[in-house]
Amino acid sequence: GRGRRLEPRSARYWPSVPRTFRLDHPLDVGATVGALANGRGDPCFRRAADGIWRASRTPLGPATVHIDDRRAQPHQAGGVVEVHAWGRGAEWALAHADDLLGLHDDVDSFRPGDRLVADAHRPHPGLRMCRSRAITEALVPVIIGQKVQTVAAHRSWRGLVRAIRLGRGEPAPGRGPALRHARGDARSRADVGRQP
Fold first, then answer.
1. CB-based contacts of 81, cutoff 8 Å, min separation 6
2. Which of 127-136, 173-182, 187-196 shows the lowest per-residue confidence on average (mean pLDDT)?
């Protein structure tokens, strides 16, 4: 429609150059990045046979990120992870993919003194603390989760994402197999209840 800025086809549909990580330590991508999913039906996050797909809003615009973890090793070093991204925020997403994968954790210095923590960590040597750098995307689901029980919070999150998408949001860029909506920015979240 008039006034709507369309992304160039190359930015929306074609992946940017993938970023490859050759790992010298175990990495369980599903457990690490899975912490960002808001329930099983999160429209911004999907686990698929070829890895994890995630829609996000970066400072440069929306991005869809595909983390191909089929060659990752959750229990031993030597794995490989490839990250692809689409959309106006693709370059930013790729530049910060190491944070998303928790690759800045200092694995060698983690020596839990508490026996319970050590016992809980031992079977999960590939678990890292991811950092999405998306504060609003992290805070909104947490705030919703503090107000209602978990199932209702996940349902509310899905409804909020869909309302933003139908109101002012943008479709998730790229060709992700199951992503339907990109997360809106803080202003579009605030305006959801005010739309005519």
1. 20, 21, 23, 27, 29, 67, 68, 69, 71, 72, 101
2. 187-196
- The per-residue pLDDT for 69 is 94
* Residue found under tokens 């429609």: 1
Measure CA 51 to chain center.
12
Structure token digits, residue 183: 């997360």
Three-state SS annotation for the chain = CCCCCCCCHHHHHCCCCCEEEECCCCCCHHHHHHHHCCCCCCCCEEEECCEEEEEEEECCEEEEEEEEEEECCCCCCCCEEEEEEECCCHHHHHHCHHHHCCCCCCHHHCCCCCHHHHHHHCCCCCCCCCCCCCHHHHHHHHHHHHHCCHHHHHHHHHHHHHHHHHHCCCCCCCCCCCCCCCCCCHHHHHHHHHCC
